[in-house]
């Protein structure tokens, strides 16, 4: 009796650490482990022939549960989920295990697998990798919420991202159909200054994971002196919707009339960003933002509950300054709680002014010009809007 793990690796994630697996590509290693032996099969998700072979093997295998290890960053998780759907593999029998090879790795961190791996993740006689395999064998299964982010733009609107080529890096407009952009979200969505910092980071990131943290800090310092539209300059309203997209409640920026309403998102002050969390980890391992955050006096009577990645609920927060975001690790409690909601949520931008701002989904950063709205709802392609994942109870973020 043995357990098979299909390990897909992103060979360019986290300073190219995934290159360590290239020598085993489309091959397998067998581990004599307890409580049962394990077989690990390796496939390069970046190479078409390799990943095709892996997905074909998954389709042919007869076990009820298929364990899929994704060695990459946060973006690689939804990449492989999308590919599983594309290859018409039943996601109800797939259990995803994150292997934190990326820069942020908040998804892996929220499931207890940490934010990084050793420089030599295989080790002498494969001992380091075997330690991971033994942890996978005793992991606990859970469900994990997935959300759809839908953006609609004006006819003169566009979205840009940073693209890298062999000897160059620059902004590239994304080709859109009918001025609409759709992307799944598993970790978080934000709009505002933090996304602009990340956008600058994408331009200047290096191939070294340790250096990238310094680059990120430098970008944050520079953005303190640049003007990025604050939320009251870019957002008109936030709306709760029902399943038929009918508006149930509307938010204007805090006024005497809407202050203290239980079913409204209230944005106090003049925040620099709006942050929507699905997990208890943000920006490369910054945890417990929601539980440490401040909240309006009028909301104490409403029982905000601890966040969970499987409760079908999103947490909305805001920060009032870049300094507040930067100091959250050292002095927790810089954010402000706004709301917990099952959605759907619709964010409407101001209509009569040209607008360029920034947003990010799961650590992927974008510039957006002249948007109309952003909607967030439970993922429509997945059963109950969830995937199956494996958690490490010993390392779970509390």
From TrEMBL:
GO CC term (a single one): membrane
GO molecular function per UniProt: ATP binding; ATP-dependent diacylglycerol kinase activity
Q: Which residues form the DAGKc domain?
A: 1-142
Gene3D superfamilies for this protein: Probable inorganic polyphosphate/atp-NAD kinase, domain 1
Q: Which GO terms describe its biological process?
A: glycerolipid metabolic process; intracellular signal transduction; phospholipase C-activating G protein-coupled receptor signaling pathway
Give the family this protein belongs to, as stated in its UniProt record: Belongs to the eukaryotic diacylglycerol kinase family.
Q: Which UniProt keywords apply?
A: ATP-binding, Kinase, Nucleotide-binding, Transferase
Q: What is its EC number?
A: 2.7.1.107
What InterPro entries does the record point to?
ATP-NAD_kinase_N (IPR017438), DGK (IPR037607), Diacylglycerol_kin_accessory (IPR000756), Diacylglycerol_kinase_cat_dom (IPR001206), NAD/diacylglycerol_kinase_sf (IPR016064)
What is the recorded name of this protein?
Diacylglycerol kinase
Q: Per the record, what are the reactions this protein catalyses?
A: a 1,2-diacyl-sn-glycerol + ATP = a 1,2-diacyl-sn-glycero-3-phosphate + ADP + H(+)
Top-rank taxon of the source lineage equals Eukaryota
Q: Which Pfam families match?
A: DAGK_acc, DAGK_cat
């Amino acid at each position: 009796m043995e357990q098979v793990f299909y390990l897909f690796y992103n060979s360019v994630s986290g300073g190219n650490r995934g290159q360590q697996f290239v020598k085993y590509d489309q091959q397998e290693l067998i581990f004599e482990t307890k409580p049962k032996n394990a077989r690990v099969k390796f496939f390069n998700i970046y190479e078409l022939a390799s990943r095709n072979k892996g997905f074909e093997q998954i389709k042919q295998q007869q076990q009820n549960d298929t364990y899929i290890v994704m060695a990459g960053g946060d973006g690689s998780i939804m990449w492989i989920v999308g590919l599983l759907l594309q290859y018409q593999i039943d996601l109800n029998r797939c259990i995803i295990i994150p292997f934190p090879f990326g820069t942020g790795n908040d998804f892996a961190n929220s499931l207890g697998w940490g934010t990084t791996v050793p420089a030599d993740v295989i080790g002498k006689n494969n001992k380091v990798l075997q330690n991971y395999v033994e942890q996978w064998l005793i992991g606990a299964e859970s469900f994990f919420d997935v959300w759809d982010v839908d953006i609609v733009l004006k006819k003169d609107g566009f979205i840009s991202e940073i693209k890298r080529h062999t000897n160059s890096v620059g902004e590239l407009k994304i080709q859109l159909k009918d001025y609409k952009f759709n992307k799944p979200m598993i970790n978080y969505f934000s709009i505002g200054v933090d996304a602009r910092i990340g956008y600058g980071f994408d331009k200047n990131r290096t191939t070294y994971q340790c250096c990238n943290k310094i680059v990120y800090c430098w970008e944050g310092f520079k953005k303190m002196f640049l003007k990025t539209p604050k939320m009251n300059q870019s957002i008109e309203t936030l709306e709760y919707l029902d399943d038929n997209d009918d508006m149930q409640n509307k938010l204007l920026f805090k006024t005497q009339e809407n202050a203290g309403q239980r079913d409204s998102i209230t944005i106090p002050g003049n925040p620099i960003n709006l942050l929507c969390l699905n997990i208890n980890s943000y920006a490369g391992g910054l945890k417990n933002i929601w539980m440490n955050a401040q909240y309006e006096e009028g909301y104490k009577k409403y029982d905000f509950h601890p966040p969970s990645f499987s409760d079908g609920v999103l947490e909305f927060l805001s920060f009032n300054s870049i300094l507040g975001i930067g100091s959250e690790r050292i002095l927790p409690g810089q954010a402000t709680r706004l709301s917990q909601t099952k959605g759907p949520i619709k964010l409407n931008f101001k209509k009569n002014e040209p607008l360029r701002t920034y947003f990010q989904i799961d650590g992927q950063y974008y510039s957006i010009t002249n948007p109309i709205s952003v909607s967030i709802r439970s993922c429509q392609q997945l059963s109950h809007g969830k995937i199956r994942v494996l958690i490490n109870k010993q390392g779970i973020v509390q």
